[in-house]
Amino acid sequence: MLLLNKFIKHSYYLSPTIILIAISIPLISAFYLYDLNREFEFSDYIFSITFFSFYQSLLSALLSVIIGTVFAYLLIKHNYIYGINFIINSLSILFVLPTIITIFGVLSIYGNFFQIYGLLGILLGHVILNIPLVTRVIAQSLKDISPNERILADQMNLNTWGSFLAIEWPVIKKNIPSLFVLIAFICFISFTPILILGGSPKYSTLEVAIYHAVMFADDFNVAFNLFTIQIIICGSIYFVFFRNFKSKNFIIDDHREYKALTSISSKYVIDYLFLILISFFVFSPITFIFIKGIGMTLFEVLSSYYFWSALSTTFIISCFSGVLSIILTYGNLVCLNKNNNSSEFWFYILIIFSPGILAVGYYFFFNEIIDSSIPNILIIIVINSIIALPFAYNYLSPSFFRISKEHQDISESINIYGARRFFLIDWSRLKEPLVTAFCVSSILSTSDLVIISFFGTNDLSTLTQTIYRLMGSYRMDEAYAVSLLLLIYCYIYFIISYKLILKKWNT
Q: CA-to-CA distance for 423 and 393, rounded, in angstroms?
């Protein structure tokens, strides 16, 4: 019993150890591939891939920040209009929805009007995907502006432009640099939009090029060179920016609200026009998928074996990835708190390991180095849980550190550690951020295409991969139907998970 208690007391080291082992596997694969006698080859092909990765990510970030900022400002300025709050809340859902659904919607709508494949299509997809994040962050910052500042602006008789420069712009300006870098990074490691909308090797990024080199060309030398470049670039971005990244800047609190205006006026016609246009631009892909997915094909898909097989696989991966992500996050938070170190370094350094890097590292490790018989689904669950850790940390860390500060001394004085402390003390106070983090981590796992592309088989396919395969075989009606069902799955999964877990434990 003494040994058991001692193990429980020091078990908080277990979680960081597991994460360390998990992220070591891609590095082991890289060292195994490295040949001292072979010079690092920075060919014209690799240069063009690297250049395009930077180029499209910077353009995507610039457009996303500009449009998202304008959208946020107009939404807060005119939040008296019926439906504005619904739009703001819906943006959070859009950001965590499977990427392939939005990209499929973009392809279906805008592909009828111009050449969608190439840089233009990639920019279009990235902007639509990232506007929700920019809008939510900027909107929250604008909501936090004190009403007294606006009253003071009215007393000084400032016009709209003067009021904007004096009140809103300083707040917006603080968020723009971090948002720009964050979105540029997201677009830099982007996979699904590039894979679908790139159209040719000319418009590939490092992430997609690594996938093609391994899965189609079987060229691990090129894959290693691309792998190395991406690690260096992602690591540099992390140490320059993300090391000082604060999760609190991106936590949304909808309880605070300020109504700048009170009634609809004809002098704001241009504002209303921009609100309508941007709203249509952002929501049209999902709306189009919803409309196209309803039909007789929907019933055919529901009666098919491949759909239910993909659904069961998706549920298993998303559920277990969410659980594992929460366990690892909580364990690491306990470890950080135990060592009096609330630094976010340990979590955000995981950003260096993009889904593509982790996937190719694990693929080579288990297929070429040790020739393991570990089921692919377990590997997929582990990788997805590692990728979701920074997101889970964002939701959990503020509440956890606050609660730990309140109860650390008393829990140690009565020897409550590990699982006992979690169920007796932490759960009742952390249940909402825990459940939310679980749901977000699970849906992020549901959205994955890059990892399942490496480890998926005909018998192991998720709904996301099924949509991609249907698109590739031009079975568009079925792809629309499966996309609609995936949308419904994500919504139901989030709502049911949240409601049932909270209801059970509240009872």
A: 19
